[in-house]
Amino acid sequence: MLLEDKKAILEIESEIRKDNLEHTLFSWSKQKGISPKVIDRAKGVYLYTHDGAPILDFSSGLMNVNIGHGDPRVTEAVVRQMEKVSYVTPACATEVRGLLGKKLAEITPGNLNKAFFTVCGATSIENAIKLARLHTGRHKILTRYRSYHGATLGAMSAGGDPRRMKVDAHQAANFVHLEIPYAYRSHGPDWIRESFDHLERLIAYEGPQTIAAILMEGESGTSGCLKLPPGYWKKLREVCDRNGILLISDEVMSGFGRTGNWFGVENHGVVPDMIAMAKGITSGYIPFGALMVSDAIASRFDEEPMMLGLTYSAHPVACAAALEVINIYESDHLIENTRAMGAYMDARMEELKA
Ligand SMILES: Cc1ncc(COP(=O)(O)O)c(C=O)c1O
């Protein structure tokens, strides 16, 4: 590249960065003294700056661009949908909404057969919490310290991520946190049993008749990738069933192949009462989310109005992106590929450990 061209490109990047920094706010960051990378385009596993230099997107965006960047099949599906209809109120039925609901019922485990469509992970979680309260008539939600469920007020109070401290001093009511077993920090041979003794005591003290749901990440992600021990989810399911408590799996990060299955909880052989999803549902191409609910929960609202809603619920363009992305997971065998890649990563980690 000629020196003049290089200089011209640096100027373009500098101008873009300046507009961004002067007129937009950057998440989870101080605003001064930062120099965000200026991205021009993206393809496959690479992001490209304006001079064409590739950057390996090692985290797939925010662990959401599961099919890779710039897949024209998604663009075409989105354009096709936009040419038909870009927006209708969530009270309308559309072909794409129905097809996506049917597809999600097919790929989610057990009797999770109905989807409530949202706009992101946090709105899936907010609606899961509301639905659990509506369904059970109870108000408390049990979640794990060190979990992350999103940055809206309810989702943030539900989480245990320390980033919430500054904005969550007056934590939303009726979230109770618990410790989960964590191999690296736990002491003594009975750590799993002790953790369940703690949970049983917590439920007794809080009163099972006040607890609507236990909310857990399918597998922990942002919260430190703290792997749940084998059998933990199964035991949790038993505790919930015994106490009439709903079990919600937050699969916003662990869904859509991130852990070798469609959903993380499937690695533990458990069917939750609801699955909250987002991120990989559209591989990040369009903001979108969904809450899959069991037949028992859905049928409760057969006669009684379900008081949940969002302007962009079941957005046709987002539904089209999701449907195409799920088709790509299937046609390109990407879920199977995550299993192969997982085995490869595990083997290399063992080598490093040795
Ligand atoms: C497990 C989990 N739940 C919820 C969320 C929130 O998703 P969003 O940022 O789309 O609201 C995230 C985001 O990282 C997440 O990892």
Structure description:
With 354 residues, the protein is α/β, with parallel strands linked by helices. It has two domains: 3-58, no CATH class; 72-353, Aspartate Aminotransferase, domain 2 (3-Layer(aba) Sandwich). The chain has helices spanning 3-23, 60-63, 72-84, 95-107, 121-136, 153-158, 191-206, 232-243, 295-300, 316-331, 334-353, and strands spanning 41-43, 46-48, 54-56, 112-118, 140-144, 175-178, 211-217, 246-250, 274-277, 289-294. The protein has a seven-stranded mixed sheet with strand order 4-10-9-8-7-5-6, sandwiched between helices. Strands 1-2-3 form a three-stranded antiparallel sheet, with no helix packed on it. Strand 2 (46-48) and strand 3 (54-56) form a beta hairpin. The longest helix is centred in the N-terminal third of the chain and has 21 residues, at 3-23. The protein binds pyridoxal-5'-phosphate. Pyridoxal-5'-phosphate binds next to helix 5.
Care to give the gist of this entry?
The chain is of the alpha/beta class and 354 residues long.
Feature tags:
354 residues, single chain, 40% helix, 2 domains, three-stranded antiparallel β-sheet, binds pyridoxal-5'-phosphate, Aspartate Aminotransferase, domain 2, seven-stranded mixed β-sheet, globular, alpha/beta, 10 strands, 13% strand
